[in-house]
Amino acid sequence: MRGVLVLVAELSTVTREDHLTCDGCSTTVPRADAIRTETYGDLDADRWQTLCCPSCGTRLRTVLVRD
To answer: What is the pTM of this model?
Structure first.
C-alpha cells in the first residue's frame, strides 16, 4: 500500500492569501514573517514546511513548498 496523507484541521484561519491569523494569540501575521520550521509527523521536509506565529510560536499552517 502506498503512503497515506492525513490532513489535520488548521490551527489558523486565512484572512487574505498573504496573511494568517493565529488562534493562539489572535495576531495577524504576514506570510513572509511567519517562522518556517520542519513539519510534524512523517511529511517529507523537502516538500512541506510548517509556518509558525513569530509572537507565540503556535503552528499556523503546513504548506506544500515543492512538488
So the answer is: 0.68
